[in-house]
Amino acid sequence: xRTKRNVFHHLPAKIVSLVFAVLLFYAQRYSAFxxxxxxxxxxARLPETLIPASPLPEKVRVGIRGREEDIxxxxxxxxxxxxxxxxxxxxxxYTVPIHLDRGESALGVEAEFSIEPSQITVELVEKLSKSLxxxxxxxxxxPPGYEVVQMLVIPSxxxxxxxxxxxxxxxxxxxxxxxLSSRTEDASLTVRLVRPAPSVRIPGGDVVEVRVLVRERxxxxxxxxxxxxxxxxxxxxxxxxxxxxxxVTIQGPYSTMEGLAPQDVHLVVDCGEVEEPGEYxxxxxxxxxxxxxxxxxxxxxxxxxxxxxxxxxxxxxSEEGE
Length: 322
Description:
Organism: Winmispira thermophila (strain ATCC 700085 / DSM 6578 / Z-1203) (Spirochaeta thermophila)
Oligomer: single chain
CATH class of the largest domain: Mainly Beta
Mean pLDDT: 88
Strand content: over 45%
Number of strands: 20
InterPro entries: c-di-AMP_regulator (IPR053154), YbbR (IPR012505)
Protein name: YbbR family protein
Order of helices and strands: HHEEEHEEEEEEEHEEEEEEHEEEE
Pfam families: YbbR
């Protein structure tokens, strides 16, 4: 009986000491924990016919408390947060909690999690889905001598969804600004779409490809008073009736045409087959720089008379005419 009395001797004090020891143990353990915070994208599970009237927060703050080696082994990609509105089928305002899901790699980690904010209020309105034509928003023009000949958008239209009262009358969606002021070559650009309103969603993604086809401008120009020149005429012969001038209409790239001078364009009459005096109808041939195309020229033929050349000293015809 004496031993039994010793066990229960000062029992209240012993119980207090035990509780204090347990609390001290957990306090020391808890104080050894680290805490970190990460921003996690917020997703929403929505009913088929409703959509938020205004955008939800893009991210929420998640606190992670635990041993240092555990909490810093977790990546933001191991966690996901969401709100579940799928059970609400009538337009209205709803306050719902934010849920946390851990990926497989985070399931074995001992840690405490907190979410800020822990809940949000969402207004659900009637949803409308429709296809909108994509319009590139172009600024500026290519440098002088160049022009945009074609612009392709891939895809040419996109599906969007949003509040009915916001997109019911919308038929087009524009891209971000595309600057063409320095474009001299073809380009394939990846650009984002500009949503008609923040509450409008683009389920298939907000990026499109814009192909810009740029060509050097083709210039047309007519040169008047181009001298006609007879070539390959025998020195013993001379020609009468050859017109002094003609005209040539040409086209070519801007860079070539810009530096072209009248003396670079010629009209020649080929006399290589003229061997004796007489009357001839000869073909006229234009001569122009490379990269230039002749569209028209005049005259195309000339009628001339050919005779033996008179000797400057004697005033008589050359030997062939004696």
